[in-house]
Amino acid sequence: MVPESLKRYKLLCDMNLTPHQWIALIVTLAIFVTIQRRGRVPIELLFLGGLVTVTLFGVIEPNVALQGFSSPAVLTIGALFAVAAGLRSTGVLDWVGHQLLGRAKTERGALVRLVATIVPVSAFLLNTPLVAMMAPVVVDWCRKRGVSPSRLLIPLSYLTILGGVCSLIGTSTTLVINTLPAVRSSIGELSFFEVGRVGLPCAVVGSLYMLFVARRFLPNRIELLEQLGDQRREYLVEMLVMPNCRLIDQTVEAAGLRHLPGLFLIEIDRQGEVITPVTPRDKIHSGDRLVFTGVVTTIVDLEKIPGLVPAADRTYEFQPHEQTKRHLTEVVLSRTSPVVGQTVRGANFRERYNAAIVAVHRNGVRLTNKIGDISLEPGDTLLLQTRTEFVDTYRHSRDFYLVSSTGGTSARRHDKAIVATILFVILIAWLAAVSWIPDVGLLAGFGSRPVAAIAICGLMIVLRCMTTSEARSAIDLQVLITIAAAIGLGSALDESGTAARIAQGLVKLVEGAHLSESMAAYLLLAVVYLLTMFFTETITNVAVAAVMTPVAISVADAGHYEPRAFIMAVAMAASLSFITPIGYQTNLMVMGPGGYQPRDYLKVGAPLALLTMVTALIVIPQVWPL
């Protein structure tokens, strides 16, 4: 007697695939296997190669293969990356980060704030740029509080993933699925909050897990604290409190100036009256000169506070539209420098070098608290505010022993923060309203999500919330190329009939189990979810969504089930990736800063993946009956 398992295997082997179907299937499997065996091969190159192969062999027409590059999802995602850059360059996200973690005292308090804020925010902002912007904020908070970043960066990634499934634009996965030809022809278009009907319960369950369970599994990399506390050369810097500074009338403690890493507030100079030592209860007034000793990275943090500007050189640019054109540079004065022997105030750096002195460092010597009166000596290290071309111009100058640019010091356009915020709110409202805007007549243009995102991006550039180069550099081409190529590969599986053949094989396998109709439908839904989740954890979310969605729709058609439920299963499984660092880009982004190993994701993410899978498989059939 032939075993039942062997009969099921024969069903799959007897599908009688055509040559084109074999090519589509072999190319897809080859991509998946190559990613596992040769992790160094760029993923976008693999998918592009696969797309070219199926096109050359005639599986799909060239115009179909290239549809992904003009896909509304690709255009929308690219524009949203740029919009996020506008929020960053105007300091909106710095402000959000300050409000989010600024007053948290403990690791648990920080985690509670992350859960309460990141989940709802990531529902309306693509989670990849959100993590890119929030990770430095979290690391800075950890540096100030003596907490290892490994305790908070995985939670940051997971929370953005959980929030991303609460709306159509929270994750690139749902944006891509919504624009696939197979989805449009099957169910039309998803509404803005439709995915949230299953995504919100998953987000709630996942957030509770992160708050009460995950902390037991998170690593505590003590060596990261030692790296963050690395003592570099300390500068003397004097900051002037402008009338528009948000620190005015706050105490030193409330302003967050008491526990800055590597920085100490020596004194406050208030119209000639010197307050020293400074206590946590002392209040900050307009016009105060705050004198610190500290390292470069923390001086950069001070510079990012609106209305707080270095006072060592009165030529310092503090107008936002001019400040963005300048950067911080370190120079070491040579013996032949013409400014040696002159005071900081009298050096006239602006006239000589088109630069302004921000801070001074002198090895082995305690500098006077009046930085403007310091007499410059050979070997002094100066922190300068310079134009971009300063490094190239003076790299070989005899005036300086050394000239080096200081990274991470780009200024913020704080004067455009309100404009950027208003534009972002308009974008969210516009994207949410698209589902109700008619696609014909005078309002047809307003019913396009790519048009909405590109329009707001363009307005941010026109209104100087960011520069064209900032917008351009914010767009992640690797992600967009992978998405576009994966959409084409998914079309090859769909149009060649390969997806339908695979679906028929899955349906026959389940029918062979002799289950009731409702149980068979539920089992197929679970199989689609598990397959998608497995491929996502080993490849990447958006590519798997583009390939698996046609298969899921074909499964629904073959079994005469509701396709929406199967599409949602793919959307959830491809988005909720927690077990490996490569399954979702945000997991990979925090791996280095958090000092994580792959096993850390498995320990923390496996229970979360199980919880969200069970939640999704319970909710989906209730919302969209099979």
What does this structure look like?
- This protein has 626 residues and is of the alpha+beta class.
- The protein has a domain of 174 residues: Regulator of K+ conductance, C-terminal domain (Alpha-Beta Plaits).
- It is 55% helix and 9% strand.
- It is built from 28 helices and 9 strands.
- Strands 1, 2, 3, 4, 5, 6, 7, 8 and 9 form a 9-stranded antiparallel beta sheet that branches.
- Helix 5 runs parallel beside helix 8 and helix 6 packs across helix 8.
- The protein is elongated, with a radius of gyration of 28 Å.
- The two termini are 35 Å apart.
- The N terminus is likely disordered.
- CATH fold-level topology of the domain at 232-405: Alpha-Beta Plaits
- Could you tell me the radius of gyration in angstroms? 28 Å
Q: Spans with pLDDT under 50 lasting ≥5 residues?
A: 1-13
What does the average pLDDT come to? 80
What is the approximate shape? elongated
CATH C-level label of the domain at 232-405: Alpha Beta
Distance between the termini: 35 Å
What is the share of helical residues? 40-55%
Structural class call reads alpha+beta
| Quaternary class | single chain
Percent in strands: 5-15%
Give the biggest beta sheet. 9 strands, antiparallel
CATH 4th-level superfamily of the domain at 232-405: Regulator of K+ conductance, C-terminal domain
DSSP E strands, number? 9
> What is the architecture of the domain at 232-405 at the second tier of CATH?
2-Layer Sandwich
Question: What's the helix count?
Answer: 28
Summary of the model, kept short:
Helix content is 55%, strand content 9%.
